[in-house]
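Hi everyone,

Forwarding the result from last night's run.
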Amino acid sequence: MLTYAGAQARHILPTVAGRIPQHFIDELIARADIVELIGSRVPLKKAGKEFKACCPFHGEKTPSFHVVPDKQFYHCFGCGVHGTAITFLMDHDHLSFVEAVEDLAARVGLEVPREEQPGARQAPPTDALFALLDKTAELYRRALMDSERAKDYFKARGLTGETAAKFSLGYAPDAWDYVLQQFGASEAERLKLLQVGLVIERERKTGVHPGYYDRFRDRVMFPIRDARGRTIGFGGRVLDKGEPKYLNSPETELFHKGRELYGLYEARQASRTLTRLLIVEGYMDVVRLHQAGITYAVATLGTATTPEHLSRVFRICNELIFCFDGDRAGRAAAWRALENSLGQVREGRQLRFLLLPDGHDPDSLVGEEGREAFEKRLATQAIPLSEYFIAHLRSQVDIDTVDGRARFGELAKPLLERIPAGIYRELLGDEIAKVVRLDPRRLAAALKTGTPHSGPASPAGERKPAPPPVKKPAAGGRRNLVRQAVQLLVHYPGIADKVSDLTALRALDRPGIPLIVQLVEELHDQPCDKTAVLLERWRGRPDVEHLEKLALMPLYIEDQAGAAQELLGALERLLKEDETQRQYQDLLTRHKRAGAADGENAEIEPPGRN
């Protein structure tokens, strides 16, 4: 049964800097292309007016995940997940509501506005830490402007002032307390510097209060920024000889090396619709590539590429190219990247590997040959993961012998098992079978990796039954007019303007009527024509679950004009029902008053209700 939560304030999202107004959320949902958003993460296939795919939220063989562009809505008939573009980013990319709004806004080229509210909540403690890191980045940037030696270093590396400004490059002077003098006047401030890794605590001595010293000294500085452009850490490189050559911020509550990618913020600023990313190894590689016009380059932060890195990348685009030096260390790094990538491999995603000529890294090579030649290498020399997989394992054995081919199969087995079950794993298994010269089914049986051409299994090894087909409601029969009216408004919010007078409807005493009234009133006040926009307005209200369920139910009306006619008809019948019911109650009252003195025992037939 539909319920009514009473009058509630419209959904305005609280944030640190203010509140995101509802009209912006409406515009964001209306402008977002949910097919493009979900299609960048899940391979969609057109099916009539909708798009279908295997659900990204649960394993399945038969597609039951539907995206409805007209309503900017998605739903899986297998596991029941559903929602708007914002909901998808929250559930699939594990973002908060604020982060999802900001991510979606960046995609459509909108700046998120803020509305200051009286009595707004205090900023959380982490905001002070972000602010401290941003101020430190500015401090280092100013120090760079005052250091001819540091500026000469960047010039010698081929960087322009424009590029240095884009990446907020800086310099940490050769002093033990440069940052401490600026931002460490009190013990509380020094503890914040320690908390974000800008200073190091000296070794404690008995009875002596611990002191601190700057972590970064006499290094050119590379601020590391998160997806929102906030500084979360630093990378520092020595200017002359010294160890370590590169020094990164330690792990903090804001900075996690295995999750962040240097240059990702700048890449997303350069292009709102990234189609691919190029992963390199160093800060200077990223900066120089961006300067050359290859603005989709990013780098890991002194660590191997992790599954968490890859999961983040594939939330943004479906093509990834690893680019490593051609020496032994570069080849070892490429293979580690491949091993860590296997859990993310599936159809619809492209992973390729480019090993550069000996003696070159991306920084030097793009400086020598320029953007066009470098991108030509990417197009012609970067090989798919499957080819690199086979070539690397072949290089470990003598494939011309039975022993070598058996060894090849044993090396491939644990790697193949890391790849999620699906078409890609089956096809790669076929390629491995060709190398070992076995029928794919015999190889699968020998390696016990599962029968080829089989769908994904449940954790217990049993097949999940396909979701039951959606049945079209039988024609005719009694229908709940309140539910029908609400469903029509959810599917076609634009028809609310056809309801010109709510006076009579407000007088009805029937469950669900207040919800109809509130929907129509709010849509009169703030019109919209998309289901997703309406549902976002109701996010967080008790009735949103009912509205979402009605959004999922099929409505066999082809256009808005037909829906408007149905809505007015349903409301008219509700009013007629109420009038008939009142007449019946009046008749029943008069009948009771007359009493049974005259021996009248006839029963009064109550009116039917739909």
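The longest strand covers residues 231-238.

Cheers,
N.
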